[in-house]
Design a protein that fits this description.
179 residues; 3 domains; 7 strands; alpha/beta
Length: 179
């Protein structure tokens, strides 16, 4: 019971600090004291483009895109910070590409999803939609709601009927999505 409580306290303190990947547990059984190190689950992402130190970084499970940008040293001057959704949760093996201001994403950029392919508006999950530049959880939800309410997208331009998508955002998304 005491061991379980100790583990909960250590894990809670570790998650609140958010800065360490390792947790040391100290347990005692009457006269002997044992120390165990528990490694937090991690995964790898590849950060490229307009960051100070592009490269492959190990992050803890549950990390968000802003954690990857911080690991890469932050944005360079001239980086288009709106080209990525900083609040998006990451997954193993992703490539994150930060664009220059005014740069137009190409279909082979990582913004089109972790696989590098164009995202289907009629089949994409909320997480896949959130990988698109300028699309956060709320907008991804509205895209899915519109898809369900209207029997799917018939053409890319149907995105303009989704609340929150104007002509500027549509221009950036049109090459990254398919029907």
């Amino acid at each position: 019971m005491l061991l379980g409580l100790s583990i909960v306290v250590v894990v809670l303190l570790n998650s609140l600090s958010g800065k360490t990947n390792r947790t040391s547990l100290v347990t005692s059984s009457h006269s002997a004291q044992t120390t165990q190190t528990v490694q937090a689950p991690s995964f790898f992402v590849h950060v490229v483009g307009q960051v100070k130190s592009p490269g492959v970084y190990s992050l803890t499970v549950g990390a968000r895109l802003f954690d990857a940008i911080a690991a890469a040293g932050g944005f360079l001057i001239g980086a288009d910070q709106s080209s990525v959704n900083l609040a998006r949760q990451l997954s193993d093996g992703e490539q994150i590409s930060v664009l220059k201001i005014g740069e137009i994403p190409s279909p082979d950029d990582s913004h089109s999803g972790a696989s590098g392919s164009v995202i289907s508006l009629n089949r994409a999950t909320e997480a896949e939609l959130e990988s698109l530049p300028g699309v956060g959880p709320a907008l991804a939800g509205r895209i899915i709601d519109w898809r369900l309410a209207n029997g799917g997208f018939k053409k890319k331009e149907d995105l303009l009927n989704v609340g929150g998508i104007g002509s500027k955002l549509f221009a950036g998304l049109s090459k990254l999505v398919s029907i």
